[in-house]
Amino acid sequence: MSTSQTAVTQYVDAANGVRFAYRRIGERDGVPLVMHMHYRGNMDLWDPLLVNTLAASRTVIIFDNAGIGRSSGEVPRTFQAWAEDLLCFVEALGLPKFDLLGFSMGGYCVQMAALTAPHLVRKLILSGTGSWIPSADHVAGVVWPREDPSAEALRVLEEAETREQGLKALEFSLFPDNDPGRSAFKQYWERVQERTAEPLSLDLLDRHGSAAQRQLETAMDLFTKSPRTVFDRLGELKMPVLVANGDNDIVIPTSQSWEL
């Protein structure tokens, strides 16, 4: 069975003109799980422990969306366009049905994808993410005023340039600031480097490049008030949805997971 460490990168040409890079992990029949990565990340940064654990009982597909990592094209400026690229990718793979997981910034993309093509998404997993700002000023079940993300966490994620700065940004933003957290990050980073199938790409997206800049532009869409924002449409999702997070997410506050 292929693992996160041994799966070879494959490519598929989609109808939108993008050549998508992806990997299949596990060799089980049934509905596959497609996973979308976080801000400035590519698929090499998925934790092999997570991916291999999931792939023990099913097929997992990790990929780089348009303009990211090994995929061609450019990063769009809206989550709707991100979602359309994702759907072009799964269409190119010929998947009649799939489960969908989005982590952090990827969580916004998969919400939009599920709303755009609910007949394709069997189950949805929203991990370490939130949703758009509601159009109304007060909504039952929403923490008011909304918690702000850690300015320091956002700063280090946005400004990291070198490999060392990228490591510090990932550790600070995604792991607890204590001895167990630092140990967990060290183990994660060691696992990531176990991949042997081909050379690794472990740097965050170039902060000065168009891909990272377009990701930042896309994020501004989250603060647009509109009756058609994704937050106001969440009730349209009829498939099972799992919301998963830690108890102290400093990038996208955990309270936004409660809202979801």
From TrEMBL:
Domain of life: Eukaryota
Domain AB hydrolase-1, first and last residues per copy: 41-258
Gene3D superfamilies, sorted: alpha/beta hydrolase
Pfam families: Abhydrolase_1
PANTHER family per the UniProt record, alphabetical: AB HYDROLASE-1 DOMAIN-CONTAINING PROTEIN, HYDROLASE, ALPHA/BETA FOLD FAMILY PROTEIN
Record's protein name: AB hydrolase-1 domain-containing protein
Organism the protein comes from: Fonsecaea erecta
